[in-house]
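Recall from the previous lesson that a structure prediction takes nothing but the amino acid sequence as input. Here we apply that procedure to Acyl-CoA dehydrogenase from Amycolatopsis antarctica. The sequence below is the only information supplied.
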Amino acid sequence: MSSTHDGGTHLGESLGTDFFSVRDQFTEEQWEPFIATRRFVDDEVLPVAAGYWERAEMPWPLIRRLPELGIVGEDIAGYGCAGMSPTACGLVHMELHRGDGSLGTFLGVHAGLAMQSIAMCGSDEQKQRWLPDMAAMRAIGAFALTEPDHGSDSVALETTARREGGDWVLDGTKRWIGNGSVADLVVVWARDTGSGEVNGFVVEKGTPGYRAEVIEGKASLRAVWQADITLEGVRVPEANRLTGANGFADTARVLASTRSICAWMALGHATGAYDAAMRYASERKQFGKTLTSFQIVQQRLVRMLADLTGMQLYCVQIGRLADAGRLSPTVAGLAKMNNTGKARQIIAEARDLMGGNGVLLENHVIRHMADIESIHTFEGTETMQTLIVGRDITGIGAFTGETR
Ligand SMILES: Cc1cc2nc3c(=O)[nH]c(=O)nc-3n(C[C@H](O)[C@H](O)[C@H](O)COP(=O)(O)OP(=O)(O)OC[C@H]3O[C@@H](n4cnc5c(N)ncnc54)[C@H](O)[C@@H]3O)c2cc1C
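The prediction returns the following tokens.
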């Protein structure tokens, strides 16, 4: 195989799998954060990720390293943010998820959703007020859209925002809110009782009426916490209403920007699983030979590699389109749908190729197998992405089950 073995010593370390020489196309700007994140993952994340996952403990020492690596703030320019190109952003998220989906999801929520909401929908004053602290991780962000009764149809959200003098009063419930119990700033999406439109509000830590309860018993992304949120008469000043969020279309703009990142995240999980299985099969002997000596094993590895390479090409192209400002939500949706689906297949193959050792957390793959389930579901399930693309190619929206 053409993958380079870059001197890794433990199962899970990057093999640099790149059969189609995709990396040759990276610019210096893309290469630097990618390689810095890869080293961080191999040296610091992989040795401890399984332990945090098993204990369902947030990896705070690793989280604190993210601003030091200069990778917080996506493609947001200024305010101390990373200001990476979309491709560099994708590469960073890919590498974090190759190591640990929980850590990657933490950054996805904090920077990809919360900071992007402020960057895309906030006024200059609001950006100046919140983004520098978030970029330095002095303030942690959360993004509260999903509700107990509204997931895929979050467009129908029921949390209300009532104007009272110079303030807004928020009431409702939210579910699955990543960082919801630890965040300093929570972007809450609520419906203005006057206009009926969805608006975005930044609720600051300690605001009376905001309660968060961590969702227990989660068997995926265990090292990042999601919470059930109750908002009871939560009073926020008009200054905390995102001035550029005036309808659900604005919420959707934020979500569209992160959908493509999910395709990169899935690529990271699949790469981690493929690399581990490849290395394991090269070393494990049965019937007197390494597993890689058997034709069926080679065929399975090659099929995994073919799918992985396809996922890489999807990512490179959505990166190029995003870099050029031409990535449509539909194309991003197709990439998310394809890559999370393929990742599930690759990871399941990898798990099986590692036999009994494949179910041990110390060998990483079972963690990828559990974690990919959430990536597959959040920010629009595979079915929702399919319906988005289906509407585009047929001209017929099939979301509500209507026949016309
Ligand atoms: C680990 C994790 C982290 C998350 N983090 C956040 C967060 O930080 N902030 C936030 O706001 N949300 C978050 N979410 C919520 C996530 O976005 C939702 O779970 C997701 O949108 C799906 O909603 P649901 O779980 O209510 O499923 P449902 O919408 O109830 O869907 C259940 C099933 O029905 C299918 N379905 C739904 N509608 C249709 C239809 N019209 N046609 C065919 N099939 C359909 C779906 O595809 C799915 O298979 C998180 C979720 C998870 C699991």
